Amino acid sequence: MSDNQTQNGNMTYALAQQSGSIQIDDAIKIYKRGKIEVVALRGLTCEFKAGEITVIMGPSGCGKTTLLNVIGGLDRLTSGRIFVNGVDIAQYTDREMEQYRRKKIGFVFQFMNLIPELTAEENILLPLELSKTLNKASKEFVNSLLDIVGLSERKTHRPDELSGGEQQRVSIAAALANNPDIILCDEPTGELDTASKRIIMELLHSVIKKFPEKTMIIVSHDPELKAIADRLYYIRDGAISHKFSKEELQALKKQSGEEQNIDFSMQSSDPSRAHEVALLELREIDHYVREKIDKIEKKLHPM
Ligand SMILES: Nc1ncnc2c1ncn2[C@@H]1O[C@H](COP(=O)(O)OP(=O)(O)O)[C@@H](O)[C@H]1O
Ligand SMILES: [Mg+2]
Question: Are residues 149 and 229 in the same domain?
């Protein structure tokens, strides 16, 4: 028997572990505030695969952050199951959940949560110190991460000496420091100008190409991010409203003729695909309209 099998006790688990998949089954999350209940996830079912970037889009308040938090073990479902490499993390004890979060998950947030007093390098080393896995090899890995995010020259700079885009690059390197299986990005470009946004998108894309055993999930309300998606989900009111599989997206990208910068608005020459392109456009418009309505409603009825 291999070490892997001995450690994990059974073959199925070892095989499932390799696949790097996440399967979410009928996820329900209800927040209770006194007597008021907010249903943030309403029977959401979907899957994620290693080597892929899944982009999840949806208007503000539809449950994107909640979904990332439950996948990342920051919060628990009210009901439903989350299989990560074949294991239902909903069954984890608090202690197991903490281990899972520290070892398997890398988070990238909209507001890069870097420690202002620490240099770029120290911020990246921090997760390793916290999980007590800092050693020579991990330090070398951090140096290679600085290289990957293009900040080797700036590793001694503090966050306030870096641009927004550079700070987000540090956050991405910090999220990768523990060599996690799953990278969760919550509005990673939300605070950035267009040029920095493009750089971050390219970086996230290159990370998954470099580490194809990892699974990346990006939630955003910014439709531009779909350019780097291998799989695309739309959420509406806590459930998946529309989805594009890897194959469907690839076919659409091929059709639009450009792998990196997809223009879904191009007219389809293949009639059998034309309706899919049209649907995607309509979903996007729907998504914009919904967001505008939300904004206006918030102005009219502030909480
Ligand atoms: N801790 C919380 N307590 C109560 N309600 C919450 C909490 N977190 C989120 N919600 C509510 O759950 C819904 C989904 O929120 P969220 O997942 O943050 O959406 P998104 O990230 O798509 O904007 C919203 O109605 C939000 O107000
Ligand atoms: Mg959110």
Answer: yes
**pTM metric for this prediction:** 0.83
Ligand 2 center–CA 181 separation, angstroms = 22
CA of 68, closest atom in ligand 1: 17
Asked if residue 40 has its Cβ within 6 Å of ligand 1, the reply is yes
- Which tens digits make up the pLDDT trace of 116-125? 999 999 999 9
| pLDDT above 60: residue 168 | yes
Confidence (pLDDT) at 6: 42
Residue 44 exposed, middle or buried by CB count within 10 Å (0-12, 13-18, 19+): buried
Ligand 2 (ion): residues with CB under 5 Å are 64-65
> Residue 259, class by beta-carbon neighbours within 10 Å (0-12 exposed, 13-18 middle, 19+ buried)?
exposed
Same domain (yes/no): 166, 229? yes
CA distance 168 to 170: 5
Which one of the ligands is nearest to 60 CA?
1
Q: How far is the CA of 69 from the centre of ligand 1 (A)?
A: 11
Number of domains in the chain: 2
CA of 61 to the centre of ligand 1 (A): 6
Do residue 284 and residue 184 come from a single domain? no
